[in-house]
């Protein structure tokens, strides 16, 4: 998954990187361009000295060399002029210094002269370094000022967006309040606000319609199912039916009962999805499990062992807590493959329920999906664990399954 970065941080990082690259490039360009200009200036000075020497020779003035600044020799043939840097010992500084050297050959009064002039470039390098250093200082100072000014400006500019983002995070379909958004003088933000309001209003309307439809369907199904159940009871109580008819009608009665349970569970899932269980109070799950076990002992032949050392109190809807514990224990009883004890272990942070099993599930990741089952039990509704997962998600609980030592384990962890 790509690492997420805050918008202001990302834009600031881009600004920093861009500024750094521009500073490096501009400093390099300035360095070489200034160096080129200084070198051109030295070479012009060397040309000027050489021209004076040529004029002096033409006027037959007395000349003498002053090594290493100027050197004048008579030679036999002409050669190309040369510019180069050379190291010469400076007795004043007592160290080697860099000189720019210009050597040229001139024919004056039918005599060929080699004229060499040199100029010290050390001072020029120091000027170059000073110029680059001052330029970098100015660049960095201006860049830092622009960076903080730009960051402050961006924070102010994006402030409506961030505030609206917080409003959207707190938006709830179950609330009748219209989402309130911060107005902005930025055209794009204003258009975004209008689209968000339109979208949220449409989503709320669709949600209310779907909720009403689900409730109506659930309510309308209860009445015909109850009527059919009553008529079948009357037929069964009639002594005129045959044994075969009795078996078929009994089978129909069981299917009707299954439809009623299915309708109740789907209605419950819908209510959980719609956050209709908004009453939250402290529930002692230890007491709730103990009460449930009394009821299960009367209905089931399985022996259930309950071990706990501490109280376990969570904040949730009481009815959903009852459904959560009931479904987990019912699931353990239904799929307990051997006549072994069902074990429930609880502490102040978790509940673990285990039952005997023949083999590990083939697709444990699908265990909490609607209507999923790995058994051949056609009477299984397939919604019990789905309801458990929905309740856990609603209250930010964690439900996990694992198989160990020929047993199925469901661990419910509370944060």
From TrEMBL:
GO MF entries: phosphorelay sensor kinase activity
InterPro entries hit by this protein: HATPase_C_sf, HATPase_dom, His_kinase_dom, HisK_dim/P_dom, HisK_dim/P_sf, TCS_sensor_his_kinase
Residue stretches making up the Histidine kinase domain: 216-415
Gene Ontology CC, one term: plasma membrane
EC identifiers of the protein: 2.7.13.3
Superkingdom to which the source organism belongs: Bacteria
Entry-linked Pfam families: HATPase_c, HisKA
Enzyme class: transferase
Recorded catalytic activity of this chain's protein: ATP + protein L-histidine = ADP + protein N-phospho-L-histidine
Residues that span the membrane, as ranges: 12-33, 127-149
Keywords (A to Z) from UniProt: Kinase, Membrane, Phosphoprotein, Transferase, Transmembrane, Transmembrane helix
Keyword Kinase: yes
Record-given protein name: histidine kinase
